[in-house]
Design a protein that fits this description.
single chain, alpha+beta, 4-stranded antiparallel β-sheet, two-stranded antiparallel ribbon
Length: 126
């Protein structure tokens, strides 16, 4: 399936750049497609961030998230891609993207990606 062009994420200046505060956006009707079966996946995307200079405009964020509707993509990939693309545009102080997926086949999944990434302990291998 061809990937549609991604709408630009619009931003506006942070009205309180000297203060750390958390913005939380919740998109409870997120959809993408399973890359194996082509079946729709339904979930909730929660984006939490401490802005630096920029904040994301909500309509552009909604349109951006809708571009995943027809994409065949694994849960882990979509979560990390949303994080990477938002970080590239906003350059936040911190950001966390959590995707909570509706159960399929008796399994429910939650994926969490963070920026900056938490430090790994020495000697711990993945």
């Amino acid at each position: 399936m061809a990937r549609r062009p991604v709408p630009s994420l619009e931003t506006f200046p942070n009205p309180s750049p000297r203060r750390d505060y958390t913005i939380i956006h919740v998109a409870p009707e997120f959809t993408s497609r399973c890359p194996v079966t082509g079946q729709p996946d339904f979930g909730t995307v929660t984006i939490e961030y401490v802005p630096d200079r920029l904040c994301v405009e909500l309509k552009s964020l909604k349109l951006y998230l809708q571009t995943f509707r027809d994409q065949g993509i694994f849960y882990e990939a979509v979560t990390n891609r949303i994080l990477d693309e938002l970080v590239a545009v906003l350059r936040p102080r911190t950001m966390r993207v959590t995707t909570d997926w509706n159960p399929r086949g008796g399994m429910r999944s939650r994926i969490v990606a963070e920026y900056p990434a938490p430090r790994r302990r020495a000697g711990r291998r993945r």
